[in-house]
Amino acid sequence: MTTETTTPHALIDSAEVAEVAEGAEAVLVEVAAMLRSILDEYGLDDIEIEWDSRFHDDLELESVDLVALAGKLAERYGERVNLAEFIADLGLDEIIELTVGQLVAYVTAALVVVDGSDGSDSSDASGDAG
User: Fold this and answer.
1) Would you say 69 and 39 are in contact if contact means Cβ atoms under 8 Å apart?
2) Which of 59, 60, 75, 89 is 20 to 30 A (C-alpha) from 7?
3) Cα radius of gyration (the chain)
4) More confident residue, 123 or 58
5) pTM summary value
6) Per-residue pLDDT tens for 25-46?
7) Residue 3: how many CA atoms within 13 Å on its side-chain side?
8) How many CB atoms lie within 10 A of CB 3?
């Protein structure tokens, strides 16, 4: 019997996986800071923001807060990270259950695709929309 293994990341070596994981941690820190600045307006800046924190149930974000977050993400990462586009692909239940980790995974993947295609350094997140 032969065991066939197929991975979606077959072209990514272990060093690249480690770099992506490191990048995801950095993105989590940045997204958490963005969320804290939004939550600060409600006096909720001391809420723990973790991978599994849900935008609706845990952070109590409303749609207007997601618009503010989209603006902060675009300001930081440029056109390559489009929160509205990401959310548009989700169903209502998925949006309600959306976690910080899912957003971080989306941002990290968007940055990897851009960095992988243009050869730029992943530490340069200047948001060049050109």
Assistant:
1) no
2) 89
3) 16
4) 58
5) 0.73
6) 999 999 999 999 999 988 887 8
7) 2
8) 4
What CATH topology corresponds to 15-113?
1.10.1200
The CB density around residue 66, as the number of other CB atoms within 10 Å, is 19
Determine the residue type at 127.
G
Residue by residue, DSSP assigns the chain as -------TTTT--HHHHHHHHHHHHHHHHHHHHHHHHHHGGGT-TTS---TT-BTTTTT---HHHHHHHHHHHHHHHGGG--HHHHHHTS-HHHHHT-BHHHHHHHHHHHHHHHHHHH---TT-------
The residue whose two tokens read 């990048």 is: 23
Encoded tokens for 95:
């949006």
| Domain map (residue ranges) of the chain | 15-113
How far apart CA 107 and CA 102 sit, in angstroms, is 9
